[in-house]
Automatic annotation (TrEMBL):
<comment type="similarity">
    <text>Belongs to the TonB-dependent receptor family.</text>
</comment>
<dbReference type="InterPro" id="IPR011276">
    <property type="entry name" value="TonB_haem/Hb_rcpt"/>
</dbReference>
<dbReference type="InterPro" id="IPR037066">
    <property type="entry name" value="Plug_dom_sf"/>
</dbReference>
<keyword id="KW-0732">Signal</keyword>
<dbReference type="InterPro" id="IPR039426">
    <property type="entry name" value="TonB-dep_rcpt-like"/>
</dbReference>
<keyword id="KW-0472">Membrane</keyword>
<protein>
    <submittedName>
        <fullName>Hemoglobin/transferrin/lactoferrin receptor protein</fullName>
    </submittedName>
</protein>
<dbReference type="Pfam" id="PF07715">
    <property type="entry name" value="Plug"/>
</dbReference>
<dbReference type="InterPro" id="IPR000531">
    <property type="entry name" value="Beta-barrel_TonB"/>
</dbReference>
<keyword id="KW-0813">Transport</keyword>
<dbReference type="Pfam" id="PF00593">
    <property type="entry name" value="TonB_dep_Rec_b-barrel"/>
</dbReference>
<dbReference type="GO" id="GO:0009279">
    <property type="term" value="C:cell outer membrane"/>
</dbReference>
<keyword id="KW-1134">Transmembrane beta strand</keyword>
<dbReference type="GO" id="GO:0015232">
    <property type="term" value="F:heme transmembrane transporter activity"/>
</dbReference>
<feature type="signal peptide">
    <location>
        <begin position="1"/>
        <end position="25"/>
    </location>
</feature>
<keyword id="KW-0675">Receptor</keyword>
<keyword id="KW-0798">TonB box</keyword>
Amino acid sequence: MMEQACSTFVLVACTLSLSVHSAQAQSSKTKDGEDAETLDPIVVTGAADNKDTIAQSEISSDLIDRTQSATIPGLLSSLPGIELIGNSRVQGQSINIMGFGDSEDIEITIDGAQKSFEKYQQGSVFIDPELLKVIDITKGTFSAEKYGAFGGSVEMTTKAASDMLRDGQSYGAFAKVGFASNGNELVKSAATYARSEEQGFEVLIAGTHRSNDDYSVAGNDEELALSAGNLLTGHFKASLEREDHFFELSGIHSYSDDYKPWAARRGLITASDWSLNKYGSFDEYLKTQAVDREMKDTSISGTYEYNPDSELIDLEFEVSYSKTAQHDTRRVPVTDPDYSAGLYVGGDDSTLDYSIYKLDLKNTSVFNWGDFENTLKYGVQLRHEVRDSMAFKKSYVGRPEYNDGRLQPYNIPSGTQTIWSAWGEYTLGYGALELTPGLRYDYIHSKGEANLATKYNNPAMNHDYGTVERFGFSPSISAVYSLTPNIKLFGDYAYKLRAPLIDEFYDVGSTRATATQLQNERVSAKRIGVASTFKDVLLENDTVKARVAVYRNDVSNNIYRLLSENSKKYDDPVPTYGNLAGYYTQGFEAELYYDSERFFGSIAFSRMQGKHDGTLKDVDASTDQYVSEVAPTKLVLSLGYKVPEADIAFGWKGRFVDEQVKVPDNYTSLYSPSKGYAVHDVFLTWTPQEGRFAGLEARASIENLFNKNYRPYFADGAAPDKGINFKSSVSYKF
């Protein structure tokens, strides 16, 4: 019933928005390039100018400040088709887009630097949102410029001096303090910045410290053990502009050292009577479940742009480096001094470093032939990823087959992967139609690092850490058609590849072989939709933006751990991973945003489904298995009111989520069936623009207003989400 009601409600709303203004389209004064208006303070759709932005969503710094979210996945989860994976522990959160929940399926960048972390049951992005100017979200993999990223991309841009300076300032400073009642969370931020118009130079230096105690879960006073944390983040950004040349250098570094579950996504931690008797107390038992975890996350990027007075040259060169380093150390229970953790969970001490070096050179050429408008974008890319893994297990000391306990975990191999790529997109514009075919070529070179332990480096078991090469073309085509000046139709198709990861090639075991036989995974992605922008709808100078889209992704040769009947298709020793028969995901999304001088609001709806060909245990099974990464039906509503004369805005947001019972068996799914729920938030902001308080921003909100006890589908384990949370912040620009 809820699914039908939600679908009908959104479709009616969007249809009304489109139909009411079809007749007004010819008299509208809105120009084609002016529909990128910022709707404050809600998420907005991208500009309906071209195929790159028509299906894009944007989260501005205003929305980041209002929500006071501690994580990027938490910020994105209000968008249709996007969900947070994990629970309230910051280090255990990642992103699911359109049914793709693996880290390799979502491309995440910060100022162009690629972020990636694929360790089992960990988060994928650890940037503090306080330092961000904007987040651009593109769903799907329809751009020839992108490698893989079947689910989409999340591009984060940090703040620069020009974003912080008040009118007329050449230098300034910023200070902010925020508090949240749940977990006694405290956030302190400061920045200093300067700009010289004459020299074309600007610089910003900023820092943020975030700390919290254990969070309380919804509906009761129970705490989510090991969710307390401290995160210190520093950021700098400098740029220089000289006539046709622009240079920018940006860097960000975060550090934390906390006591965490080895599997950061883990839910509530409970101890049996047997465990309590053995270890004497719950705190002693926790030592067998948790680690002292030191996390360092670094990104550095440099950009050079050359844009002379020529339509044929708009050159951009990016170079970046990013590294995520995790060091885990086990504590020893007093009652069990010989305790030694399993190697599959890192042993007694482990390190894992992910480093990515990236070069990106591209150019845009514009040339017209009569009535045809032509744009050619093309470029070359180089991405080099290094994974360095090491562990120590004290119970293996004295055992040479395990190298006396110093070895790489068999399920977290070390290695390198280098991707050389060339791509191009040609946009042909004629009248109301814009057509963009694209083509991409990738050559992927992978090489494992031989395990120090002969137990996992045994040629007789087909443990092969040698070089593997994969390559292929990825064609795509997109179209945008202006039905009227206010309504545009769009459609996309792409046939993209993703090569196997280091983890998938070289994950072994005492009875399992490396999987150097793996072939590229492919997706055939399709999408059609309509986007519209109208002004002067209900009130003078108001704006309505609407977007509706349907999509389908058919994945072939999907890579998965070989289980049961699927493993019997191989001779012994069986490789750890194999290519399966494939699966599909498909869905419907609708968005409607309204903004006026006083009123604002939004509707966002998404519904999806998906099935495997056969099952993850048996591709020849007669019954197809549901895809566990498919999110439940979701409706997010917001409504607010602005008082311009007092610079005040306040409002409400409701999140209504249906049950999810179409789940495969627990052995092939991390997620168990979930019930439907509704959660309500309210907020208030005061941002005076003039007078003695100009430069001040005061914000307050209440999340989970009624302390609803609920568990999101993608929250691993049985942990309810965070309980009622009072948030407030005050900032000032000097």
